[in-house]
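User: Run a structure prediction on this.
Assistant: Running it now.
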Amino acid sequence: MGNKIRNYSPSGVIPRQLAEKIKLAIYTLLYTPVYRMITLVHHLKTRKTKYRHNVSLCLIFKNEAPYLKEWIEYHRLIGIEHFYLYNNFSDDNYKDVLAPYIEDNLVTLVEFPVKYGQIKAYEDCYAKAKKETNWLGFIDADEYVNLIEANDIKEFLSSYRRFPSVMFNWKMFGTSGYIEENEEELTTERYTSCWPWLCNTGKGFINNDYDFCQFNIHWQLSKSGRLTLWPVNLDRCISRYNHSVYSQHVAAKGYINHYWSRSYSKYIYKDFHKGDAASADCDKARKSSDRFMKHEINNSAKDYSIQRWLVILKNRFAQNHKDAE
């Protein structure tokens, strides 16, 4: 199967694949030429803004203190310049972890005690950051942008600068056989068992040379007149709803490592105690009796590609510890 993009849901694969093929045919014939013309004209006409940051990330989090340092330091390595972090009812030591980054103006921390506030946090972050950063990505603390063909996300995204937004597909990572969590080990080192294919959904980066009118967990929409401008995937094919079109080339460019469960005990905490930040429906879906099995049973492959950064990341941790002494 290789890296072929598969349906995110194990059920109903054939009907949904057929529907995707029909939509793809329609977009190719009608929507795509208009979309590409509009984005090209917009790019040529847009006066280039001088942003304070080139690429930034937005995160809403709850009780992620053990993982925030690795998440921030890894994304700094690939070129992320600033982080807009929204605390959503955490009661751990997140302030202690984030204090050095806030002091160095790398992190903007927003206290956001809003139940099911993920989309509202994204909208608030967009309002705050749209004039500060050229590209703004919306990902979670268990998601790591994994560039395969590039080393720097600023250079990578510059090749998509004519498009309003870009979607990185998910690659799902499971427990790797661990029952208990070990917070002394890095997520990117410990969890390597994954699905052998990419999901047809993921997370987006928006280009603030455009104005955005609608936010979703997975994608963000812009408009030109009455025409909705959807994201493109890494193959520059237009995404519709939260689905990317099928392509053998996307995985060769990059994806998001989604460590959706980490250990089994972490999965139990996340799905049955922590709750979902998006909506009551998402919260209910997390508690499905077969959700874990449907995800975990697909972890028949190994992916070590993100570990090309591992020694550099560990050395940075060691240097930070030395500087703090």
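The first strand starts at residue 53 and ends at 61.
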